[in-house]
Amino acid sequence: MKTRSLDLTAKRHVPVEAGMWLPEQTRSQKLWELRRRLLRLDYAFSFTVVAILLICLIGAPWITTYDPYAVDLKAATHPPSLEHWMGTDDYGRDIFTRVVYGSRYSLGMGLIVTMVATLIGVILGGTAGFLGGRVDELIMRFTDMVMGFPAILFAMIIAAILGSNLTNAIIAAAAVWWPSYVRLLRGQVLSVKNDLYVEAVRSIGATNVRILMRHILPNSWAPIIVRSTMDLGRAVIFTGTLSFIGLGAQPPIPEWGTMLAEARWFILDAWWYITFPGLAIFVTVFAFSILGDIIDEILRPT
Known about the structure:
Oligomer: single chain
Number of domains: 1
Helix content: 55-70%
């Protein structure tokens, strides 16, 4: 009877499921997988747009030589040309320059809103999920109450009460943006806090704060990171909406929503005036939505 010899030089295998064995990925295979992902069209588009936005944020004065606030009525509403790549507005200001500088305001507002909302959500959601009981009930009922209002309407009321400017628009947007993070993190904490490793840490006398900060939150970050990445693009739209209706950034600040508000009167006569700020918002939101999907794909356990 023939016996099958063991191949001791074969690659190591790791168990995947009962009765199934797959070869462990070598380093070269992992690098090839990373390279394959980076060459995907959606990856390339998202990373390229984010890189361009970062360059605009940091190097706006070096990208364009025009002053975003300089008025030249002789050059008003000129179409795109070699001198003005995206044309000029009704005050003769270079639209390309204003779009580049506007990334600082639009992305800055969106980033601050997302960071503040995430911080509030982590604190309240982590506390509610970990402590439970009356604390959980109180936090979640307050969260439900805030979510019961239409977000944009609630933000408009807050911005109108506080006054129309950049800072108040950020406060108004952040005030209605955090509830979804509370719900998300609370669910993550509830699914993790009764795991065996948490019980083991608790049995050796670790405090609640240490358990939450060192063991539960680090294992609950993945969906928060994905959500905040996607929300960055949505926050740009949200704060831009407040600016568009006059409750956010005020002219002549080159914020994209404010530029759309100024351009809406010239849709028929100067199509470029509203097209390029709108395109900047669209591409930014689309890129960050794809980036969120990419991060989700990377962090999701397989």
